[in-house]
Amino acid sequence: MSTGCNRDHISSREGVRCAEMAMVCLTDFEEYAKEHLSKATWDYYAAGADECCTRDDNLLAYKRIRLRPRILRDVSVSDTRTTVQGTEISFPVGIAPTAFHCMAWHEGEMATARAAEAVNTCYITSTYSTCSVEEIVAAAPNGYRWFQLYVYRDRKLSESIVHRVEALGYKALVLTVDVPYTGKRRDDIRNQFKLPPHLKVKNFDGVIQEAAGPEEYGIPANTLDPSISWKDVYWLQSLTRLPIVIKGILTKEDAELAVEHGVQGIIVSNHGGRQLDGGPATIDALSEIVDTVQGRIEVYLDGGIRTGSDVLKAVALGAKCVFIGRPAVWGLAYKGEDGVREVLQILNDEFRLSMALSGCRNVAEINRNLIQFAKL
Ligand SMILES: Cc1cc2nc3c(=O)[nH]c(=O)nc-3n(C[C@H](O)[C@H](O)[C@H](O)COP(=O)(O)O)c2cc1C
Ligand SMILES: CCCCCCC(=O)C(=O)O
């Protein structure tokens, strides 16, 4: 991915200094992470599927959208707060579930959770966290958290994690539906990428870790169930009272089915372009889904959010909140909890500024009138 940053002139010797310079935008963190992580780790985080068309289009699509700013609207006071599933967060940006945070920073997901708690936003913990859900909750006891669930062939295993996170105070379950199989990520294959042996998928320590059979990323490959279907949404509802959010919807047809199946939210997502290459950029898929859902449930989005004006565009097109994946990991690689906080703070500042410059005083004032649609 391009760094999009004005540091390209910095020589490698000067690059050491780079770490002490102010981080100005999210691509500064990307550049830092690329320089400091091992190649295999960097490649895993950066990976897209196949030719990475969808991964890259997630970012480019925002740059094709133009805004229609309003003026003279007294933007001396602005309020970025919003709610998700009835809970207030400081601005409409949360942290998407990403796996293996301990590869980026020794405290891994505990650091991520502390940062989200400090900024008062939502952190979605991945099934494949390298700290256990118990450790994460203990690290940030007042944080607002959802848990991302992959459905295992062994349903008892999924059932037990659902009960565990519900008892721990997680506030929603995010069912990821776009990974019946892992996408083909060429660099991971070339690098024979594996979770380093000193790290574990801690939630299932001693269970899937020791299962026999072929491995993917150093964890058993045949654990996720490719046969999951809409009826499993009913199965999940039978296990829990938590709201269920489906992550990985890209069409109006599936959005309608999600509503009909009684879930409480949708994340418009293509898994950061790591699964099907050739699918739409998420911001391009958003409008048809918002139009279909008609406010019956909340619609969120992830993929390619790198600036405050990206957030503004997604909210204007109907996303209640957006989530960042890779940028949080870059923040971790930079400075752990403080790095993730900085990433969120920069996005918050940029979002506030974009709101003000387009004449919006609060999130409720952001709507489709802000978007310039191409003339036919
Ligand atoms: C390194 C990495 C690991 C990921 N792990 C998971 C995961 O465990 N569960 C999941 O539902 N999505 C996972 N995702 C997808 C993210 O939740 C999210 O959809 C995506 O990263 C958003 O795009 P962005 O990175 O451009 O912000 C992962 C993405 C990345 C980059
Ligand atoms: C065996 C499947 C590993 C998936 C790891 C997490 C993930 O979703 C990713 O995109 O990477």
From TrEMBL:
SUPFAM superfamilies: FMN-linked oxidoreductases (SSF51395). Coiled coil: none annotated. InterPro entries: Aldolase_TIM (IPR013785), Alpha-hydoxy_acid_DH_FMN (IPR012133), FMN-dep_DH (IPR000262), FMN_HAD (IPR037396), FMN_hydac_DH_AS (IPR008259). The keyword tRNA processing does not apply. It catalyses: a (2S)-2-hydroxycarboxylate + O2 = a 2-oxocarboxylate + H2O2; 2-hydroxyoctanoate + O2 = 2-oxooctanoate + H2O2. Keywords: Flavoprotein, FMN, Oxidoreductase. FMN binds at residues 97-99, 126, 148, 176, 247, 269, 302-306, 325-326. Its EC number is 1.1.3.15. Glyoxylate binds at residues 44, 150, 185, 271, 274. Pfam families: FMN_dh. GO terms for cellular component: peroxisomal matrix. It comes from the Eukaryota. Its cofactor is FMN. Residues 18-376 form the FMN hydroxy acid dehydrogenase domain. GO terms for biological process: fatty acid alpha-oxidation. The keyword ATP-binding does not apply. It is an enzyme of class 1 (oxidoreductase). The active site is at residue 271. One of its GO terms (molecular function) is FMN binding. Belongs to the FMN-dependent alpha-hydroxy acid dehydrogenase family. PANTHER family: 2-HYDROXYACID OXIDASE 2 (PTHR10578:SF149), S -2-HYDROXY-ACID OXIDASE-RELATED (PTHR10578). This is (S)-2-hydroxy-acid oxidase.
